[in-house]
Design brief:
alpha+beta, 6-stranded mixed β-sheet
Length: 146
């Protein structure tokens, strides 16, 4: 008779933890959407949607305001979304902004990052920080496990 009680307790705990993670995920997704909306507001121009980064790079040569959303999984099986923007910066020069949605990636510290760079290539680089890019944390999940 003890085994069914333990099984019921374990199932109840699983349901509670799963519901809490789903709530955290929806808050994170809302914060990522908020960051994307803020970038679009700052661009203040009609943005052309691109299906991939190749299209975005092509639009960058003429500095056509553009956006591409890329989604992929990490090696650990977690979800990452990238929203790429090409636009004119405050200085009038062509710029690139990357919104990284790492809200489901515990290795990415469950956060939303916004990176502003002079180009898509600089934003894509592993050494973006040495290429004049500025990155800030838009939001972090306070209950992230990493």
């Amino acid at each position: 008779m003890r085994i069914p009680q333990i099984a019921v307790a374990a199932l109840g705990l699983f349901v509670v933890v799963t519901a809490a993670r789903a709530a955290d995920r929806s808050v994170g997704e809302a914060k990522a959407a908020e960051a994307v909306a803020e970038v679009k507001r700052k661009i203040a121009a009609k943005v052309i949607e691109c299906p991939d980064k190749k299209c975005l790079t092509a639009k960058e040569t003429a500095c056509v305001p553009s956006h591409a959303r890329l989604e992929h999984g990490t090696l650990e099986g977690q979800f990452v979304a990238e929203d790429w923007f090409v636009h004119r910066g405050a200085d009038g020069k062509c710029s690139a902004t990357l919104v990284l949605d790492l809200t489901r990636d515990s290795y990415g510290k469950c956060r939303v990052l916004v990176r502003d760079c002079a180009s898509v290539a600089a934003a894509s680089s592993d050494s973006w920080d040495t290429m004049g890019c500025v990155q800030h944390e838009f939001w972090r999940n306070p209950v992230c496990k990493r």
